[in-house]
Specification:
There is one protein chain. By secondary structure, the chain is an alpha/beta fold. The strands form nine sheets. Strands 2-4-3-5-1-6 form a six-stranded mixed sheet.
Length: 547
């Protein structure tokens, strides 16, 4: 009887221990779950979301959304109606791994929110551009917008307005989540040992040109110590993960020109390529031409009929523009050129390629215009900061209709509106009697695109602003119809100018003779001037001696 009672007591103790073990494991799992959710919500504190049209998050230098929970939270923060994350549509399996919001344009179908991810529970470190994923554009009757996270490393970027084609919102501060009492950790430690985890995160920012690269390295060291009546065991493990995020610190530019190969325009483009300026100084560019051609960099020299090829710079292949480049004077106008259909075709081909959608602004540059893209970036940073996604075009001339075609600057959102509304403009405007620059302004105004005045954008003889010498500090100088004058203007615009004057006055007094005044004047040292750029400074020194 006593022996049976001892076995019964032992079984009860064993069962109690097993129950405690199960409870401890469950409690530890719950603790990890709650901790993970809490850290997620804490990480969301102050996060900005942005809704972008066209392409994926990576196309706009934004971060992808990794989980269904965050996808729904972003939709709520942006004020969208449908917050339920649906399954990925069958026709979108090739899409970049992002959170998307689909809005039917011409039907009463319900708006849908869905997350395309191979593993919706595992955060992704990158999101493919739409061109890398090979995903085709959606049908015209559906508006697809990616919901993205604005990189926190962007600094003090202004809050995004939840209006227009792109919207942004700041996630509200989450409420505190009650944690399970620390006694669970104590019990777990007694049963299974003590685990210590040390995480070290190092962030490094590198700025190159118009982009900044943020590299975050996380090192995790885990040590587990378990003690029994006979021995103590310690095991450890470490892991390192690195995430690199690239974003724009200045507005990014997509630039293009339309060139006739058998004209002076080709030599201007060769000169620009040799100097790395004009459209070749933009973040991405394309040259349309009337025939496929390889542009080789070259520089003109006085007295030589041909440009001298410059080594070490890669040539550029042009893209055939599927339209005749012949232009026709407008009847009754001195300078009016009917070239609207040419550039309608250029916008069509840009839309088909879609490369401009990865940039903030699009700029069309005439081949006879000396264009300095670095100055344009500085102007745009003041007018429309990065991530503000403006809907605007720039007015560059104080006279006439204000938008002169030597340099045209439109935001990506404005160009999207033009592409979508071109047919409406053709129906409602007398476009056949307009040059392309007047056509673009009239169409933009009809479609409700805003404009900003930037009279630092252009120095143009047609705008009553003599461009030469090119030392005004403006962005663009126009027109220059040969490579020598083009290069001269570029050198004037980019070379620092300093002026120094040294004056020495000598006065001699004697009792026997007088030096004629004209001889004394010839002894003065004349001013010295050397051209080194557009920033002028002057200094003078004077010394006097007498005997």
């Amino acid at each position: 009887g006593a022996r049976a009672r001892r076995w019964k007591a032992l079984l009860l103790v064993t069962a109690a221990c097993l129950l405690l073990a199960v409870a401890a494991v469950a409690a530890a799992a719950a603790t990890r779950c709650f901790s993970r959710r809490a850290s997620m919500k804490q990480r969301a504190l102050g996060v900005q979301y942005r809704k972008v049209y066209g392409g994926a998050c990576a196309d706009h230098a934004l971060l992808p959304i990794a989980t269904a929970e965050e996808c729904s939270a972003a939709a709520e923060a942006l004020g969208l109606r449908n917050l339920a994350v649906a399954a990925t549509p069958a026709d979108a399996l090739g899409a970049p791994e992002d959170c998307y919001y689909m809005t039917p344009m011409h039907s009463k179908a319900k708006e849908t929110l869905w997350l395309n991810s191979q593993d919706q529970g595992t955060p992704k470190l990158r999101s493919l551009r739409s061109s890398e994923a090979g995903w085709e554009a959606p049908p015209t009757d559906v508006r697809r917008e990616a919901l993205c996270e604005v990189p926190s490393a962007a600094g003090d970027a202004p809050s995004l307005a939840a209006s227009g084609d792109d919207g942004g919102a700041r996630v509200p501060m989450p409420r505190a989540i009650p944690m399970i009492p620390e006694v669970v950790d104590a019990v777990s430690g007694l049963m299974f040992g003590t685990t210590t985890t040390t995480t070290t995160t190092t962030a490094t920012a590198t700025i190159t040109g118009t982009t900044s690269t943020l590299t975050t390295t996380t090192q995790t060291f885990t040590s587990t110590t378990s003690t029994s009546t006979t021995q103590t065991r310690t095991s450890s493990a470490s892991s390192t993960s690195t995430m690199t995020t690239t974003y724009h610190t200045l507005p990014s530019l997509f630039c293009f020109s339309v060139v006739r190969v058998n004209s002076y325009e080709l030599n201007n483009m060769r000169t620009a390529l040799a100097k790395g300026t004009s459209i070749f100084g933009c973040d991405e560019s394309v040259v349309f031409s009337d025939q496929e051609y390889t542009i080789v960099p070259g520089l003109p020299h006085p007295g030589l009929p041909d440009l001298q090829e410059v080594q070490g710079i890669a040539p550029v292949q042009t893209t055939l523009l599927r339209h005749d480049l012949a232009t026709h004077p407008k009847q009754g106008a001195l300078e009016g050129i009917l070239n609207t259909q040419i550039f309608m075709q250029a916008w069509t081909q840009l839309d088909e390629a879609g490369d401009f959608r990865g940039h903030d602004f699009v700029s069309k540059i005439d081949p006879d215009a000396v264009f300095l893209p670095g100055r344009l970036r500085d102007d745009l940073a003041k007018i429309a900061p990065v991530s503000s996604s403006p809907n605007l075009y720039l007015v560059n001339c104080k006279i006439s209709f204000g938008l002169f075609g030597a340099v045209e600057v439109f935001s990506r959102v404005a160009l999207e509106k033009y592409i979508a509304g071109e047919e409406r403009c053709k129906r409602e405007l007398d476009w056949k009697m307009m040059g392309e620059d007047l056509w673009m302004r009239k169409c933009f105004d009809l479609l409700g695109v805003q404009h900003e005045d930037d009279f630092n954008l252009l120095s143009d003889g047609y705008c009553s602003d003599k461009p030469s010498p090119c030392r005004s500090g403006k962005v663009t100088f126009h027109p220059f119809k040969d490579a020598l004058s083009y290069l001269k203007c570029y050198n004037e615009a980019t070379t620092l100018t300093t002026t120094s004057t040294v004056t020495t006055t000598v006065t001699m007094l004697t009792s026997t003779s007088t030096i004629p005044s004209q001889i004394v004047s010839e002894m003065s040292v004349g001013g010295y001037s050397s051209e080194m750029g557009e920033v002028s400074s002057s200094s003078s020194s004077s010394s006097s001696s007498s005997s």
